[in-house]
Design a protein that fits this description.
The structure holds two protein chains of two kinds. By secondary structure, chain A is mostly beta strands. Chain A is built from no helices and eleven strands. Chain A is 0% helix and 50% strand. Chain A is globular. Chain A starts with a strand and ends with a strand. Helix content of chain B is 0%, strand content 55%. In chain B, the strands form two sheets. In chain B, strands 2, 4, 5, 6, 9, 10 and 11 form a seven-stranded mixed β-sheet that branches. The chains are: A mainly beta, B mainly beta. Chains A and B meet through strand 4, strand 5 and strand 10 of A and strand 5, strand 9 and strand 10 of B.
């Protein structure tokens, strides 16, 4: 299985901050990397697919980049509704998720 | 509007069996592969199983292979997960998730609200 890691595991930030979360795959997954947001007690929500494609209806303050083994998710200006846990997921082979990055309020 | 509604969760003892259902609406169910993804309490997400649009192909995580069976009834727009020989480590919220496929890309574009399965003696 392809292992996914994320850093940091958690971060504290303020409204308006620029936040970047990184995700690394244990082998090249080309562009087959997706990002999800999950709020407590809710189902995950797709944000970004294929590394950099914004899902319809998702705010343009979210962006993704990367290829191969290294990827990132950036929130350009953190909003109150963005405090959540973010997961990366590879779809190059049998799906695996990163351990998550919890973004909370500083 | 795409809707996925899971049901069938509950509390049961180790070694028991349970069948989860996911009722789908708002899209052409028979055209899309479907998945089960689970999340243990306070933990991350774990893919469990995938079934092709026709039901002819199924895939499983190693942790459930031989114990769980995914199936679908396209006439009823319903996805199932038969869970046998349950273990404490199967305790989780189980989500039904639709697969979006564009070219060779695959991602979970819609998720249900989840159903809780608790395995404890």
């Amino acid at each position: 299985d392809i292992q996914m890691t994320q850093s940091p595991s958690s971060l504290s930030a303020s409204v308006g901050d620029r936040v970047t979360i990184t995700c690394r795959a244990s082998q090249s997954i080309r562009k087959f990397l997706n990002w999800y947001q999950q709020k407590p007690g809710k189902a995950p929500k797709l944000l970004i697919y294929a590394a950099s494609n914004l899902q319809g209806g998702v705010s343009s303050r979210f962006s993704g980049r990367g290829s191969g083994t290294d990827f990132s998710l950036t929130i350009s200006s953190l909003q109150p509704e963005d405090f959540a846990t973010y997961y990366c997921q590879q779809s190059y082979s049998s799906p695996t998720f990163g351990p998550g990055t919890k973004v909370d309020i500083k | 509007e795409v809707q996925l509604l899971e049901s069938g969760g509950g509390l049961l003892q180790p070694g028991g069996s349970l069948r989860l259902s996911c009722a789908a609406s708002g899209f052409t169910f028979s055209s899309y592969a479907m998945n089960w993804v689970r999340q243990a309490p306070g933990k991350g997400l774990e893919w469990v199983s995938t079934i092709s649009a026709s039901g002819g192909q199924t895939f499983y995580a190693e942790s459930v292979k031989g114990r769980f069976t995914i199936s679908r009834d396209n006439s009823k727009n319903t996805l199932y997960l038969q869970m046998n020989s349950l273990r404490a480590e199967d305790t989780a919220v189980y989500y039904c998730a639709k697969y979006a496929v564009a070219a060779d890309l695959e991602y979970f574009d819609y998720w249900g609200q989840g159903t809780l399965v608790s395995v404890s003696s």
